[in-house]
Design a protein that fits this description.
Layout (H helix, E strand, L loop, with lengths): L4 H4 L16 H9 L4 E5 L6 H12 L5 E5 L3 H8 L9 E5 L6 H16 L6 E6 L3 H8 L7 E5 L5 H15 L1 E3 L2 H8 L3 H14 L10 E3 L3 H25 L10 H11 L4 E3 H7 L4 H9 L2 H7 L2 H4 L2 E4 L4 E4 L2 H9 L2 H8 L10 E6 L5 H13 L4 E2 L5 H4 L4 H12 E8 L7 H10 L8 E6 L16 E3 L5 H24 L1
Parallel strand pairs: 1-4, 1-5, 2-3, 3-4, 6-7, 11-12, 11-13, 13-14, 14-15
Antiparallel strand pairs: 8-10, 9-10
Helix pairs in contact: 2-3, 7-8, 8-9, 9-10, 10-11, 10-16, 11-16, 12-13, 18-22, 20-21
Amino acid sequence: MKAYLEDVFKTSGIPTYTFVKPAEYNSILVSLRTKGRCLVVEGPSGIGKTTCVIKVIEELGLNANITSLTARKKDDLEFIRILPEFDNLGTVIIDDFHLLELDLKSAIADYMKVLADEERTDDKLILIGINKAGDSLVQIAGDLNNRIDTIKFEQNPENKISELISLGEKVLNINFNTKEEIINLAKGSFHIAQLLSKETCTQAHVLETVSDKTKIDQSIEVIKEKVLSDFERIFYPKARKFAVGNRLRREGRAPYLHLLYWLSLSEEWSIQIDDIYLKYPDNKLSVSQVVDKGFLEGIIRDNEELKDVIHYDPNSRVLAVEDPKFMFYLRNILWSKFSKKVGYISLSFSNKYDYALSFAGENRDLASKINDLLLEREVSVFYDKNEQARILAENVEDYLAPIYKSEAFYVIVLMSKDYPKKIWTKFESDNFKERFGTNSIIPIWYVDNYPGYFDDTHKLGGLSFDQTKDLNNQAEEIVEVLTKKLFETRTEQKQ
């Protein structure tokens, strides 16, 4: 029987000829047969979660009593909101559950507890979402954990991707020369395997079942570049929008760009922020600045073009890719080229900190303001209060010494009358004094304490601060100069 290419390798909807049972199929079947328990199915997009659930429902003959809803549709959201008011609903699927607002998730969690406690035999909720969807529910209602089944979809093994391709080859009467390469590029995604197989056939002019067995002899690199070229038009604007955050800070540490890069390396298509802090401690300060102040959540919430491709759950602190095509794009771009095209000077940095602040306690008002303004510009700063938790129980001298000796690219010294009188400023200056002559010490002189002839800082270019004038305006001016200096330094390093 003749079949059309678009029906064989399907890039949307339920596969007609190439459905492959994922490893989780039987677990879902058993869960759906179990009366009185609701089900959460979680995992990366494009991995086959929704397709698998629908196929199990078909096998169990439950089609007639199914209501399918999605958190992406406004009308469905209204119905989801009133679900707890109904009895005898049958089986209800809520796809993209992770997109629901917290209050609606909470209401659904309570409803699932009611269904479990009342052991209703005819009502069941099936929630489908990205990684950690179940965790986000349990965080809302801790006692829900033992009342529901949570089935996590992992990356599909290579043999499952191979089975999908083989089914398509059989229907179209063809053999791919690039089957292994397609399997490798799919990275466990049924969706990407379908897409690459379809594009390979299109390039070979095989648009339907052929009468004679045909070998498809195409270059996988050509196919990949064709797909990436098509994706570039769609996904580059989205990737750039996320990578720059609210504003491009060329001299900054690029926290959004790094989050996107780390996503591209993730096998699960998601990253957990606290795990990232442990894995990349040098980036913790810049990333925490955009996460803890709500900027990460806000940039996705306020930009419609990002909502379709990326999601952040502030409760589980998980950042995840929504679209398998976007993930394919991220995994296959040249990141050094992408970061330069976006506008950043560098994706890697030679020093743990851009600046370290050295000051007397009496001058914390200026130090704090400089720290805040530099962090807003996505610059890495050592400021004692930023790292109180890390310093706790440590040998303070051992912790601080390397920061002032070498880990900070520049040391900013607030040269007030109080500076020479303090024990800790003496300790800090002892550790950075060897750096005089290396163009890495930046003094800020208080106007009532300009350096004398025997003060080493008088040889350095520095800035001034008048404590009788407006602190905020002066701090803004100081930070403007500091970030310009950093920009020039980074530019010179790249040349």
